[in-house]
Design goal:
Length: 253
């Protein structure tokens, strides 16, 4: 039993344990090309949270990792079979209840570790900050923690070389052979500004990609996944250790 994983610890251990920071992994349940499971984002995010927490715990940070929320915003994929959409307003309600608990127990530092591109907690954190002025809340997209182009040849964003490599390392029994995967080809917008990303709209997923993947997974390997996992968890453990050490009333220099 790992003392920093809430689901594995006991009240006996926890009731007098110093805890400064809570981490909430947040994923999604959605199709991932033809070769990765629907739970990919949850599997990845939960293990990245646990390993980053372990490294930070060893550096002295006292924290707790909450169970992963398994449903993300999938509003652009309502026609893809059993992709579970959780609307942003529902996510806010969940966050508000969890923040309320942490606030009552004086765990005033709260990190949301996000593993799904459709989730965006920024505006929710602004609103939570008004409702819980004593709390410090931040979010981190683990897939942006390091420069992915250092580790992978082909970029993408969904069930791509990065995610496939990572799953080959952390959950190889759940990855189908690469020759069963689709090519992950994704169409671009016909409007220039949307491709340049200074204008934004939601992508209608089934019009963009035939196999639900965005990004070619064919060059994925377990070795790439292992290197990436180690780099990402190390970087996030440093964030956690920094958060643990910081005075939330004195964050600027
Ligand atoms: Zn994913």
């Amino acid at each position: 039993m790992r003392p920093y994983i809430l689901a594995e610890t006991t009240w006996k251990k926890l009731r007098n344990q110093e805890i400064e920071l809570a981490i909430l992994p947040w994923g999604a349940t959605e199709a991932h090309n033809l070769h990765l499971p629907y739970g990919t984002d949850n599997i990845e995010t939960e293990i990245i949270a646990a390993e980053s927490a372990r490294l930070a715990w060893e550096k002295g940070a006292r924290l707790v990792v909450l169970p992963c929320i398994p449903f993300g915003v999938n509003t652009g994929q309502m026609d893809i079979r059993i992709n579970i959409n959780m609307n942003p307003t529902t996510q806010y309600a969940i966050l508000k209840d969890i923040t309320d608990v942490l606030n009552r127990h004086r765990i005033r530092k709260f990190l949301i570790l996000n593993g799904h591109g459709g989730n965006d907690f920024k505006q929710m954190i602004r609103e939570l900050g008004v409702n819980f002025p004593d709390m410090f809340i931040c979010s981190c997209n683990w897939y942006q923690a390091v420069d992915n182009s250092v580790f992978f040849e082909k970029d993408g964003g969904h069930a791509d070389e990065m995610e496939t490599s990572l799953m080959m390392f952390i959950a190889p029994e759940m990855v189908l052979p690469l020759n069963e995967a689709g090519n992950g080809h994704a169409k671009k917008f016909s409007i220039k500004a949307l491709n340049e990303k200074w204008a934004w709209t939601e992508r209608k997923w089934s019009k963009v990609t035939a196999d639900t993947g965005v990004g070619d997974p064919s060059l994925a390997s377990k070795e790439k996944g292992e290197k990436y996992f180690k780099a990402v968890t190390w970087k996030i453990s440093e964030l956690i250790a920094d958060l643990y050490r910081s005075d939330i009333n004195d964050l600027y220099e």
